What does this fold into?
Amino acid sequence: MLFTTITYAGFLLIIFILYWFAAAKSFRIQNLILLAGSYYFYAAWDWRFLFLLCFSTFLDYLSGIQIENSASPRAKKFWLICSVGINLGFLGFFKYFNFFIDSFGQLLQSFGMIASVPTLNIILPVGISFYTFHGLSYVFDVYSGRVKSTRNVVDYALFVSFFPLLVAGPIERATHLLPQVKAPRTFSAEQASDGLRQILWGLFKKLVIADNCARIVDLVFENPGQYPGLDLAIGAVLFAFQIYCDFSGYTDIALGSARLLGFDLLRNFAYPYFSRDIAEFWRRWHISLTSWFKSYLYIPLGGNRKGMVRTIWNTLIVFLLSGLWHGANITFIIWGLYHALLFMPILLMGKKKEQSGKEELVRFTIPNLFRMILTFSLVTIGWILFRADSMSSAVEYFRNILIPHDAAKTIWDIHLNTTTTFIFIVVMLLTEWMQRARSHGLSFTWYQIPGLLRYSIYAFLIFAIIWFGAESEQFIYFQF
Amino acid sequence: MKHFIFGLIKFVVFFLILAVITVLVSCMYMRSVRFEIPDDKNILVVGDSHTECAIDDTEFRRAINFSKSATSYLFTFAGMKKLIRDNPQVDTVLLSYQYSSLNEENMNKWYDDVILLQERIPAFLPFMNISDLRVFLAIPGLPRIVLASVKTYLEFYGHRRTGTYKAWIRDNLGAFRQMNDNNLDKDVKARTPYENLRKKSRLSTIQLDYLRKIINFCRDQKITLILLNTPVYEWRKFTDYRSFEYNSKKYLKDVRILDYADYPIEKKHFSDVSHLNKWGARAFSKYLEKNLALDLTQAQPQYEKLFLKR
It folds into this structure.
């Protein structure tokens, strides 16, 4: 059930009506409705993996209680290791088994040994990376005493499987979402209206920009030799916008859906392409994942408290695992290392700032513009690694950008809407620039803009979606 | 909650009014445009892929081809009315009429296939009657298709400003389509002879209704309507020719049918069993250029005599 389909709109409407009208008096019943809806939502993808989700949920729920109830540190540690081991075991099996087996086979072959290693036809359960990290954050927080274990299984199951964030995040923290699950929610017209606006903005970014970019990007990455270098560079830029509008569009729809139900989820994007250096980019891009790695990996490893060498090492580990989290492919690992490399000068110069979730307002100055363009260019180079199917494809792509060659095609022939797509990218960038102090592109209240103008903006976006929206494609981050 | 729902309803009403106005204005604009064809072209060729591939209007010089693949008679009727009104010199219409034109199984999907209708409704909507839309009321997402059609008219406006609107007409209303391939042998292998299918064709009443509307319209406008059955490879083997003949006799007694199904054409001139490639289209169009007037005066088309002479 894709967020961009009529089916999802109908599903959300039914949940909204049941939630606010049929069960408004009891938040316990509301939670049950949300949990049933979330499991239905997940089963609509593939019902077989619902059992895996339930098992993972129950394991972490039980581990949380056992960690809290255990008197000895050894017993606490046992339950922590048990939960982390099984969760990462599932994740490793479903996501990385074939990758490691293949890599092992290749390694043996490079030593001259002919190895026939078995691989399995494993289907990746949708959202496994996200709900595994939800569960782990809870167990870690209970272990460290940041949060008390929850005794209500429905509350906990809802925390893990709340449908707006189930398949592609944001990766929630128990400290943030569980208190909302455990307390009654009150309907706020302002919050719900803002949720609808955020959904509309997300749909616009996904259907009008990301999916139109995808048509061009797919073709140039498939046959880079057939396009001139400039077109390939434009193709890479379009992929930068595709992945941003795809993932942040998804997140906007997720956050908007949650707001309709009275929940505030963690912010996942803070206009990352307005970043002035790579550290700022990572404070603004996929915030819930970077902050997860920071809290549960970087800081436990010692963070920046154990000298420069250790700080560099910890940063490298975080980026490496962050790359690997995205998928079982060497390109993701190299992409992670590339970002770690970009990060080094900032670490060495001691310019790294703490992630606060709120970035200072970027002012429009020539030096800032220059730094933003430079950062965007560096990030876009990284996206080529991210998008390529293999390292050899990535190298071929880079080579075709840099070395002049006979090109039979141009991206301007591919898709009638290439120019229109660029116009909408500019519209999106201008809107987000003007709204950069707020949480999303349409985040304004009724008294700021006259009603007719506001309605006209919404209508413009709906018309743009209907007229220029491409056939909806799967969200990129669903594969992770 | 009341405030939220009231605000939502207000916006929905605003959007619906705006959407209706946008569609109406853009349709009125399209209706106001004159689709002019050259003065020396007095024969209008309309219909589906059979005429689309068979009539090369550079060879058949008095004709202009506005046929489009998978276009039902409903859309053909809408487009044809507009073209005839805009071009008073048109005195003859050649309409594709072939073995499956009145076959329910083949034709009804042209009325309910959402993907196909997403192309056809926008192209012909401005020229349709409101009542024609009733046929599509059961189609999921009809309002969205209707609203999306405005984009087609915006594209036309853009093409018109740049003087390239012929490309828009080709893509939306239709034109001669050059098939450069020859897949006849492959198609013959893939097809089962009709007799072996043991299927009984059923009449598509909606196709027949709109075909009758076309006949009546042409009669009212004093335009000669000719139903054209284009060449088919081994017509009697691969098609339900009996139903074709039965329907023709039963429902279309009052209209002239030129049946070229058996027209002797070389194998290499077919694109597939029922479509000509560009060489076949060239040969067939040359024949029509020369013999159409004569064929109309006779009970049998001229080629049958030519064929017998051979």
